[in-house]
Design a protein that fits this description.
Shape of chain A: globular
Strand order of the largest sheet of chain B: 1-5-4
Largest sheet of chain B: 3 strands, antiparallel
Order of helices and strands of chain B: HEHEEHEEHHHHH
Largest sheet of chain A: 4 strands, mixed
Helix content of chain A: 40-55%
CATH superfamily of the largest domain in chain A: Hypothetical protein af1432
Distance between the termini of chain B: 23 Å
CATH architecture of the largest domain in chain A: Orthogonal Bundle
CATH class of the largest domain in chain A: Mainly Alpha
Distance between the termini of chain A: 65 Å
Strand order of the largest sheet of chain A: 5-6-9-10
Radius of gyration of chain A: 24 Å
Strand content of chain A: 5-15%
Number of helices of chain A: 22
Number of domains of chain A: 4
Oligomer: heterodimer
Shape of chain B: globular
Number of strands of chain A: 11
Largest interface: A-B, 50 and 41 residues
Radius of gyration of chain B: 16 Å
CATH topology of the largest domain in chain A: Hypothetical protein af1432
Chain lengths: ~450, ~170
């Protein structure tokens, strides 16, 4: 009997890690930092729209780590991999140890996510990005000790944190390795597409990921003068097209669903309001039972406070604010969120701006109060959607854009959109949508004042 | 409101007058972000240095909305739509970066690419110039030979640059 730890999984059926060789992964899974991801929903507030979308970032992280192993084993990986450390020195790591390093990076890649996945991101005067938080959490002694005791490679024992940072930041010398972790066709995307579609019950989103991986190779890309991941177009093009179309469908149907987007914005409004109350020292309005949220909103480098804040923590506060907050705006926002009362969509427009100056004047005149205006009239745009799809939405592909490279027989290595008419058509589609939502109490009065609407 | 998010980019263009090239636009915003400007765009390290899809989308959107002008075919130049200038909030925090914006905008794009790469390494643990030089030699071999001196000089200037609080 092989000494392995098995996890049942709805996407891959069995996920297994070797108890000895993969000790680092199994130890990390037990840490509070990783267990916290069990309390962070992978799709944030999408469960308000798709009731079964309650899967968490923990299962996704295990899935990504496993899938990296699957990809790695199928690729033509060299026996020895050179890594340049932060002193500029080169170190050689054997193939098996390097695989474990990549799987570790995959397991930890979401460790810096805040509650509801993106609630704290892109908020004015709040310096929070989950990538940055992840790097800070990696530096914690609890994580470093696991690396020191778990990696067999002497260099990785001391320098795994640094290597994972390079992998996440795309600066590792072996560029193809970065691409397994983070690129247009990385393990993260493959796993979240399959998992999200399954958990949402969106059956038309599927692709043959095994065939896709079977036709993936590490090859030299002349236009970028480096080695990278390439798909053999003759065999893998159709599964690659399915992958891109699946992304497109998920984006349209799930990630940018109008009701979900409304609740994402509502949640951000709540966080902004709480931050403003804290800045004005109106803590009495916040029914504080634990001050981690206060500490974190004052100082976004406070990792200990951050790690206490998860979906359950925020939802408990919102339930309190909905009943007991003495701040009317926070109370109303919290009620709308907790009791699932979405704002009414007043306007949706594709490829154009939402309102002209006259409309903005009407909105300002009606509310006559900047705070109420910003809380009860929400604007949403694809560009502020955390799940936006860069590959499909880039109408004018920049030279710097990330490509999916395919090897076309007798024609060399091309970008996918140059090799597939289907994808070319998709990249030219305008799916940029802007929306405005208004609190239900203010919908009719605003229309009566002449605000343009659908 | 979303317009508030866009206003930072519009203000930058108002200060700069024009920005020649997408790459230059990207690198200027990245460097300003490192200097504390409240730009929210996510950057990742691409083959051509720090790059942000968020920013690319935002610029495309501003062009489509007619708020900024884009001219050229391959090398794009960006200017602010004249009618927008008077609607911008003169208290926008980006004005405190005006001198830095002018300085960066007057530099050639490849130099900014190298400097942005160095800044990226700096915030990711490469804490002295010797280490940075070794790493950029690997990441940007062509640029290092031509722009190394200018890049380190600009990097030093950036470190000494003090941002005046805009009142």
């Amino acid at each position: 009997m092989v000494d392995k730890k098995f996890f049942r999984d709805p996407i891959y059926n069995f996920i297994s890690f070797d108890k000895e060789k993969d000790k680092v992964l199994l130890e990390l899974i037990k840490t509070p930092e990783l267990l916290r991801l069990k309390r962070i929903k992978q799709l944030g507030v999408s469960y308000y729209t798709y009731p079964s979308a309650v899967h968490d970032r923990f299962s996704h992280s295990i899935g990504v780590s496993y899938l990296i192993g699957v990809i790695y084993d199928r690729l033509n990986v060299p026996k020895i991999i050179s890594v340049i450390d932060s002193d500029g020195e080169s170190h050689e790591i054997d193939k098996d140890n390097f695989k474990l390093l990549l799987q570790t990076a995959g397991l930890l890649h979401d460790i810096g996510h805040g509650p509801f996945s993106h609630a704290f991101e892109r908020i004015d005067n709040l310096d929070f990005k989950h990538e940055k938080m992840m790097i800070n959490i990696l530096e914690r002694d609890s994580i470093r000790n696991i690396f020191e005791n778990g990696f067999q490679d002497e260099f990785l024992k001391q320098h795994a944190v640094e290597c994972i940072k390079q992998l996440i930041n795309n600066t590792l010398s072996e560029y193809w390795a970065n691409e397994i972790i983070s690129s247009q066709i990385d393990a993260d995307r493959i796993d979240f597409l399959l998992r999200d579609a399954y958990m949402c019950g969106v059956e038309y989103v599927s692709f043959d990921y095994e065939w896709l991986l079977h036709n993936m190779r590490i090859e030299y890309i002349p236009s970028e003068n480096r080695k990278g991941l390439i798909i053999d177009a003759q065999k893998g093009l159709h599964s690659l097209e399915s992958f891109i179309i699946s992304r497109y469908h998920m984006y349209e149907q799930v990630y940018y669903h109008k009701t979900t987007s409304c609740f994402v914005n509502l949640l951000k409004c709540i966080i902004c309001r709480v931050r403003d109350l804290i800045n004005r020292e109106c803590l009495g309005d916040l029914c504080i039972f634990d001050d981690s949220i206060v500490k974190f909103l004052k100082d976004q480098s406070d990792i200990d406070s951050f790690l206490k804040i998860d979906d359950n923590y925020i939802m408990t506060y919102i339930s309190l604010w909905a009943e007991k907050s003495s701040d009317d705006i926070l109370k109303e926002l919290s009620k709308c969120f907790f009791y699932r009362k979405p704002y009414k969509m007043i306007k949706e427009i594709r490829g154009d701006k939402l309102f002209d100056r006259n409309d903005y004047d009407i909105i300002s005149k009606y509310f006559n109060n900047d705070q109420k205006r910003d809380c009860y009239c929400l604007e949403d745009s694809y560009i502020f959607n955390p799940y936006k799809d860069e590959y499909i939405l880039g109408t004018k592909p920049a030279k710097e854009a990330e490509h999916i490279w395919v090897n076309v027989k007798n024609n060399g290595i091309k970008d996918l959109s140059a090799a597939s008419d289907l994808i070319k058509a998709l990249t030219n589609l305008t799916t940029k949508t802007n929306r405005a939502y208004v609190h239900r109490d203010h919908y009719k009065p605003l229309i009566a004042m002449g605000l343009s609407h659908d | 409101m979303i317009r508030k998010e866009f206003d930072k980019l519009l203000t930058l263009l108002n200060i700069a007058g024009e920005v020649k090239g997408r790459k230059k636009f990207q690198k200027i915003i990245f460097i300003l972000q490192q200097k504390g400007a409240d730009f929210k765009e996510n950057f990742f390290f691409h083959y051509y240095g720090p790059f942000s899809y968020d920013l690319q989308f935002e610029i495309d959107d501003l062009v489509e909305s007619g708020l900024i002008n884009e001219s050229g075919n391959v090398n794009f130049t960006y200017t602010l739509n004249e009618s927008i200038s008077s609607t911008l909030d003169i208290n926008n925090s980006i004005y405190s970066y005006a001198s830095l914006i002018h300085k960066l905008n007057s530099q050639p794009s490849p130099l900014l690419e190298l400097v942005a790469t160095m800044c990226y390494l700096k915030v990711n643990g490469y804490n002295d110039n010797e280490k940075i030089e070794k790493k950029v030699k690997f990441l940007k071999p062509n640029l290092v030979n031509r722009y190394k001196k200018g890049a380190f000089s600009l990097l030093a200037e950036l470190e000494n640059e003090r941002i005046k609080n805009f009142v």
